[in-house]
């Protein structure tokens, strides 16, 4: 396989890792107003992701670094053209991270309420805008002959892209609520399972609409195959959650997100940034990639370090695998 093509799929894998792992973090953050009936509930929700959220977030750094090194032209066009949207994502991630660290520093309810709001907004905004960004990448944006984006921020907020954003928002929300059901016990676990059932129905409808729209506009054989896997995994996750099999439901939600991301990359292939105004201005794997020497060095580096990263992350999840309960968080709050 050509190294540039290989790295196209490695970049896809990096974004799969980010959306699967930080995706449920976003979902847990967005679930605070629905599942957090009191401060103890909210502390339980935050503690489910407390040991892992920052590790999950590093995947976006690895994905961005891989994109920069393997496809510098793609990186330059994407980050210059989408800089306002990406800046908003960055600010939201900063606000969310600060809130996790500062929420417990003072006992006042108003202090905690403000940081809870930052967690909710800091989770919902990236969940929405990542879908908007990827939908625009697949659909194509106006580029000039030098591969510079010549549209505006409002051009990115088109119906197809907004549907993509709503899809990722609902996917991550459901993914996070299923994770809460997997990681908690008692009443909050039961409420999370019921919420995941209701949210899952909306997610199935919206995600199916987005995938069908994408398929008819940009679909390939591989896209339809991966989209079918995503659809079946999503329905399977909903059924597993309804039956109380939280582990199976979470695994199938991860498979849903992974298959959906790979499907979008399959719809994009062999382009990396289609030009909607003139196909001659499109960025492709061939004209956007680094030199073969650079890709060779990157391949050996990934071969050595990626398994170590995966092993460390797996070990972290194993160490913090136990459920979080209200009694652990605040014994005085348990009646």
TrEMBL record:
Location of the protein in the cell: Cell membrane
Superkingdom of origin organism: Bacteria
Membrane topology: Multi-pass membrane protein
InterPro entries named in the record: Cyt-d_oxidase_su2
Keyword tags: Cell membrane, Electron transport, Heme, Iron, Membrane, Metal-binding, Transmembrane, Transmembrane helix, Transport
Segments passing through the bilayer: 6-32, 74-94, 115-139, 159-183, 195-216, 222-240, 247-269, 297-320
Chief site of localization: membrane
Pfam families per UniProt: Cyt_bd_oxida_II (PF02322)
Family to which this protein belongs: Belongs to the cytochrome ubiquinol oxidase subunit 2 family.
Name of the protein in its database record: Cytochrome c oxidase assembly protein
Taxon lineage: Bacteria, Bacillati, Actinomycetota, Actinomycetes, Micrococcales
The encoding gene: cydB
């Amino acid at each position: 396989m050509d190294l540039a093509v290989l790295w196209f799929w490695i970049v896809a894998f990096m974004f799969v890792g980010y959306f699967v792992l930080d995706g449920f973090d976003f979902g847990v953050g967005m679930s605070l107003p629905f599942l957090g009936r009191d401060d103890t509930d909210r502390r339980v929700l935050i503690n489910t992701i407390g040991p892992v959220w920052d590790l999950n977030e590093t995947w976006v750094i690895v994905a961005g670094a891989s994109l920069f090194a393997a496809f510098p032209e793609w990186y330059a066009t994407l980050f210059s053209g989408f800089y306002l949207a990406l800046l908003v994502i960055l600010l939201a991630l900063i606000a969310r991270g600060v809130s996790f660290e500062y929420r417990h520093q003072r006992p006042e309810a108003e202090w905690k309420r403000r940081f809870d709001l930052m967690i909710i907004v800091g989770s919902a905004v990236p969940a929405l805008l990542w879908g908007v960004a990827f939908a625009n990448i697949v659909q194509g944006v106006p580029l000039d002959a030098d591969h510079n984006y010549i549209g505006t921020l409002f051009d990115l907020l088109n119906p197809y892209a907004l549907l993509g954003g709503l899809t990722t928002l609902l996917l991550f929300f459901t993914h996070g609520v299923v994770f809460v059901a997997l990681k908690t016990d008692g009443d909050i676990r039961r409420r999370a399972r019921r919420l995941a059932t209701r949210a899952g129905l909306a997610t199935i409808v919206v995600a199916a609409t987005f995938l069908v729209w994408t398929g008819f506009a940009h679909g390939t054989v591989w896209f339809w195959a991966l989209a079918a896997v995503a659809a079946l995994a999503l329905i399977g996750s909903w059924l597993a959650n309804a039956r109380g099999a939280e582990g199976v439901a979470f695994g199938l939600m991860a498979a849903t997100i992974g298959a959906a991301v790979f499907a979008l990359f399959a719809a994009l292939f062999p382009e990396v940034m289609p030009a909607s105004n003139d196909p001659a201005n499109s960025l492709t794997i061939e004209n956007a990639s680094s030199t073969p020497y650079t890709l060779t060095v990157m391949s050996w580096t990934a071969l050595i370090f990626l398994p170590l990263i995966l092993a460390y992350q797996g070990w972290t999840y194993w160490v913090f695998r136990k459920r979080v309960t209200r009694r652990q968080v605040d014994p005085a709050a348990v009646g």
